[in-house]
Amino acid sequence: MAGILDVFKENQEVKEIDVSKKLRVGIVGCGWIADAHIAAYLKQPDVEIVAGADLVPGKADAFFKKHGIEGVKCYNSCDEMIADNEALKLDAVSVCTYNRQHAPCAIAALEAGIHVLLEKPFTVTTEEAVEVMRAEKKSGKILSIGFQPRLDDNMKMVRDVVQSGVLGKIYYIQTGGGRRRGIPTPFGTTFIEDKTAGLGALADIGCYSLDMVLNAIGYPKPLTVSGYKSAFFGQDPCYCNYVATGHPEYAKKFEVDDFAAAFIRLEGDIVIDFRIAWAMNIDTPGDTIILGTKGGLRIPSTECWNGSIGGDLVLYHEVAGKQVETKIPKINEKAGAPSNFDKKIRTFLDACKGGTEAPVPSSQILYNQAILASIAKSAELGREIEVEIPEI
């Protein structure tokens, strides 16, 4: 096992950042996730934040004042900001809007020749994702999707184990995750209304758990999906967090999924048994399990999806005719190390400056998005469906 474990040793060399060329960056959507983006950008010595936009009048201006940044030009829409790009000369934007604005904002920026870091989920529908990718292809600019858990050392370790071949041919995966009580309403209703979110737990945290396993196995094409979704907790005015915050009326506004499950068939004769929840009457829907012909891998769940793993990996295999279990220790983050979010911003900037591939390429996340959208569609139809992906 020594050879396999050696691949998990990370190169700790710190890359020197070229500050002779600063990237001019804009923020589209100034809600809570934008706080994380701007905090990470402010740590980078080669970034100048020059513009921001939000549909709520005055919100962008207040956002930048809160973060102590002066001289930023603020706009009341993405289109308004992009229209002024001759003066702004933006190199890149972070799109931090609610889900249903992801596609139009990303397309507008790409068509203006601006690199885009697009928050997850990619979009709401597969067709929207395809339209964004068409704009990306035409522009020749970087489009990276905000899946920062992929940059976690433990997520890389999961992929390395699978890619090493120690599991043999992969044929079955069980994955998912969730929260016992965790419908995201502290910032209002944008996560739970159809007009803003489109998808619920599926898009918010389901996209991450799918990416963990799909990235590990090389993102094979999805073929069919049989999906289920429900909203028993979100539509209950007695839901504990509604009661605690004094917002029972949110139950009437809840129009997305708070739980979803699916059976997904992939190319290569692989199946995924998937479930995800914002609320459920259990602590976890189970560990992630990857079964192969030579070995199996158990990835411990977390109480709430946090972008990493819940403990040491366990590899089940045979040695000299004996059934054995090999523990692969969880990698603990070193004190002072960049967070996964910081890595997301840094790798995006490096790709913009170096003209390299996007850290989280749309070509992969298109399959992720197609699965999410197909789960929702299958659930509504009450039957298995083929996953349809238009040509780019």
Describe this structure in words.
There is one protein chain. The chain is of the alpha/beta class and 392 residues long. It has two domains: 23-149 and 341-360, 3-Layer(aba) Sandwich (Rossmann fold), CATH 3.40.50; 150-333 and 368-381, 2-Layer Sandwich (Dihydrodipicolinate Reductase, domain 2). The chain contains 13 helices and 15 strands. It has helices at 2-6, 32-41, 59-66, 78-83, 85-88, 102-111, 126-139, 153-163, 201-216, 240-245, 250-253, 340-354, 362-381, and strands spanning 23-28, 47-53, 73-75, 92-95, 115-119, 143-146, 170-178, 222-230, 259-266, 270-277, 288-292, 295-299, 313-319, 322-328, 385-386. Strand 9 and strand 10 (270-277) form a beta hairpin. The longest helix has 20 residues, at 362-381. Mean pLDDT is 95; it is low at 7-12.
Observed structural traits:
392 residues, alpha/beta, Rossmann fold, Dihydrodipicolinate Reductase, domain 2, 2 domains, 6-stranded parallel beta sheet, 13 helices, 15 strands
As laid out across the biggest beta sheet, the strand order is 14-13-12-11-7-10-9-8-15
> Total strand count, please?
15
* Number of discrete helical segments: 13
**Percentage of residues assigned to helices:** 25-40%
Uncertain regions spanning at least 5 consecutive residues: 7-12
The CATH superfamily of the largest domain is Dihydrodipicolinate Reductase, domain 2
CATH class of the largest domain: Alpha Beta
Give the overall silhouette.
globular
Number of domains: 2
User: Biggest sheet: strands, sense, closure?
Assistant: 9 strands, mixed
Rg computed from alpha carbons, rounded to a whole number of angstroms: 21 Å
